[in-house]
Design brief:
Elements: H1 2-7, H2 9-26, H3 28-31, H4 35-62, H5 67-99, H6 120-125, H7 130-136, H8 142-147, H9 151-168, H10 173-194, H11 197-212, H12 222-245, H13 250-256, H14 258-267, H15 274-283, H16 288-301, H17 304-320, H18 327-340, H19 350-360, H20 377-402, H21 408-415
Length: about 425
């Protein structure tokens, strides 16, 4: 048993999760000091994300051969993201209105303290402008994009760099090889960091349990429960249909990603598993160019869990403060949310900032109502991260099937357990459907 556990990251993460809960309950004062373990693990992952995205995207585009393919994947990704994000927003609205979440709370505005929001509302006011959002995609400098770990800016530069390498061809083959070899080193470092996941999960869970306690989960309110119910329904029904249309079983797919989902459960961050997810999707039989474009882009443009949270929280605040919503308000919520939700990734306190940005565009709903969701934001953040990750992985499968860039027979073998997976350094681009791990 010990030998098996020493080889399985999944079992180690589960053990870290259980020990974290026990430690948090039995040694609460000590456990409050363990938060740096979780934070440190996430920081170790984040320090490599910019380089990983750059290497993977550049290698994928430069090795794709046909830039038209890259353009097709990009266009199909945008279409898919907008459709699924809209569905997620609508589902959030439907569940919120069907249940009347927040109704009867009778919270008066004078009971809410705007001081609790800090500068969240002020920062949110600057997120509504579509023009500003698009301008923020362009880095002031390439070095700045990497230094600030702004994934969208790094992605933009990587697409341009990879396209240029593709066009230059053999004259730049040495640069292509250098970037490909660099990716080997980066993924080897990532493999070392991944081994620390059980420690990171242990620290994060111990701190959370000691601070909030297990009983507190029962008192978070109907908003948290409804949010998780809506996320489960979205994954089971909507994403389940997408996977079925792609010819792969949803449950087996989730089982295949169980280690990554457990890490997200413990750290409330999908950034922590981005490299492993990309490698697993390539191992599944999806072309590296598709994985390299869809996953990094989806982290900012395909936030299904966040979209559900946004509409649920807005309707909850409106109902709790006794604010009636007209049809025009609902349409405004949908339209504004489609824009603001795209800027959620990579912003400190992103959920609350984007929620504030959306509220400022809907005058009928008081922005000060944001205080109502402050206490439960962390718990909802776990659900947001899990749903976002699952949504992006399903998106990659769907777009790969749409693009005919997936070996379905191999994928079925992998999901059935006939071809195992272990985290390995990235292999050279080309013929990715038949790489062995």
């Amino acid at each position: 048993m010990l030998k098996w556990c020493s080889r399985s990251i999944f079992l180690q993460v589960v053990l870290g999760l259980v020990l974290g809960i026990v430690c948090g309950l039995t040694l609460p004062e000590y456990s409050t000091q363990l938060k740096p373990l979780g934070d440190g693990f996430i920081k170790l992952i984040k320090m490599l994300i910019g380089l990983i995205v750059f290497c993977v995207v550049v290698s994928g585009i430069s090795g794709a051969g046909d830039l038209k393919k890259v353009g097709r994947i990009g266009l199909k990704s945008v279409i898919y993201f907008e459709v699924l994000t809209t569905i997620a927003l609508l589902i959030g609205l439907v569940f919120a209105f069907t249940t009347g979440i927040g109704s009867g709370a009778n919270i008066h505005l004078e009971q809410l303290s705007s001081a609790d929001m800090g500068d969240i509302a002020q920062r949110g006011q600057h997120m509504v402008s579509t023009t500003q959002f698009l301008m923020n995609l362009i880095p002031t400098s390439v070095i700045g994009a990497f230094a600030e770990n702004n994934i969208l800016q790094v992605l933009l530069f990587a697409v341009l760099f990879g396209s240029a390498l593709n066009l230059v061809g053999d004259a730049a083959s040495s640069i292509s090889r250098l970037i490909n070899e660099l990716s080997h080193v980066i993924f080897r470092i990532m493999g070392m960091i991944v081994r620390l996941a059980p420690i990171g999960v242990f620290g994060a869970i111990a701190f959370t349990t000691s601070k909030y306690g297990l009983d507190s989960l029962q008192h978070l309110g109907s908003l948290v429960g409804l949010f998780y119910l809506t996320c489960v329904a979205f994954v089971a029904v909507i994403l389940g249909v997408v996977m079925r249309a792609s010819g792969l079983p949803m449950l087996s797919f989730l089982k295949y990603l169980r280690e990554e989902l457990l890490i997200v459960l413990g750290t409330a961050s999908s950034d922590a598993v981005l490299p492993q997810v990309m490698r697993k999707l390539e191992h599944l039989g999806i072309g590296s160019s598709t994985v390299g474009l869809v996953i990094p882009t989806g982290y900012s443009f395909n936030l299904d869990g966040f979209s559900i949270y946004l509409t649920l929280a807005i309707v909850f605040i409106a109902n709790a403060t006794g604010t009636p919503l007209a049809l025009s308000d609902l349409l405004t919520i949908l339209l504004v949310s489609l824009i603001t939700s795209k800027g959620a990734h990579g912003i400190p306190g992103s959920a609350l900032v984007i929620l504030a940005a959306t509220l400022t565009a809907i005058p009928a709903i008081p922005v000060v109502g944001l205080v109502l969701v402050l206490a439960v934001d962390w718990f909802m953040g776990i659900g947001r991260a899990l749903t976002n990750l699952i949504g992006n992985c399903v998106a990659t499968v769907a777009i790969a099937r749409w693009e005919k860039d997936i070996d379905v027979a191999r994928a079925r073998k992998v999901l059935s357990g006939q071809q195992g997976y272990t985290f390995q350094p990235r292999k050279p681009v080309g013929n990715t459907h038949h790489q062995q791990f």
